[in-house]
Amino acid sequence: MVSTRAVPNTAFRRLRGQRSAGEFAAAVRRSAREIGEQVACDARYIGRVESGEIRCPNYAYERVFLHMFPGANLADLGFSPRESVRGRGARTASDTARPPTSPLLVLGSDTDEESDVLRRAFMTSGTTAVAAASLGLGLGGAAAAAVPVQRRVGEAEVGAVEKAVRQIRLLDDRHGGDGLYRRAAQPLRAAYALLDSGTAARRSTADRLHAGAGELAISVGWLAHDSGRFEDARSHYAEALATARLAGDPALEAHAFCNASFLARDTGRPREAVRAAEAGQRAAQPLGSPRLLALLALREAGGRAGLGDRTGCERALGRAHTAFGKGPSAADPEWMTFFREAELEMLEAQCWSALGDWSRAARHARRATRLQDPHFTRNLALYRAELTTDLARAGLTEEAAATGHRVLDLLDLVQSSRIRTMLADAVTVLRPRGRGSVDVKDFLDRHAMAAGV
Question: What is the tally of structural domains in the chain?
């Protein structure tokens, strides 16, 4: 199936005037800060809008653009109505035709089953035309026209969205994000189609739908993050944050800021990581979850370590340990099941690594690998990759090579660009340091074979 040809957005281009795309993107970011939004606008994004690739902006960008041009609406800015494009996106023919890159991309029967759950729920609702398109059901115009544009959203639809969130998290824990991302985006588009077109019978149902759609956006954003699609991740996190603010949901807002902070740290923007973590802590304060505050303090510590602020990092780590020590709570969010002592140790290891204290980083990374539940296969591989790098930098090359072998053992099960990049970094450190060591040479040779070098 070939996608519809993009139509250039000439109205938006006229609004840019004589400014370059980069200058206009900077103006968008300034306007976002004025209203408390967070958007990752750059010249490439402006180009995508002007070319017609982005036919309608996400909620965060919509708020920013309407703030920049008071009195205008989306149509005045050259955008299509949201209900006409939500869930379709700008897909190329190659995107549509590309086969799965691994058996995991099928998500096993679990994801097919999940799509069926969503499909059944949406086929019985009034949002069939939009949701079906986003799930690739290929309904013709006649079938779509036979369905009312809008109807009530009930337990079946909301339950399907919530189940999709749990299923994606479970598969991610086991397998990593590379093979899951594209397929996981399908239920996300359907969830937002439902949010845009549906009307909930009760306020509680509407609140659950907003929360479910936002959590799904964060989950898909994390898959993008884990598979190295950083701009996609920023977009999904921004959409979740906009959803949280529209719904007045501090728990969802805290989660969105938590992930945005993590992404900022991973992409070399430590100051942004600190600001996002601090905003997340403000949102989380009234929720009554010490563990959530502990994780957000660790996100702050990671950002401060990236800034080289050892004192600030140590203070944030101290707050994290104090809050974590208060134990679990009934108020802990469902998504935090991964946050156990092993994750605490891992995040602290990354702080010391960023500060260049390799031996201390290795001690914490060792604890993380010993404490990690084998169920979280992706995280176990991640922790071992971190430990491999820390050991290599600390000069413990033999132990680093042995740990690197254990990472390679798991990479048949885990598809994560992030982990492969970490392991490649360890190899770069080991290569000049491990000359003369048979064990190190064996690991380097095995890694090269696995990487196809």
Answer: 2
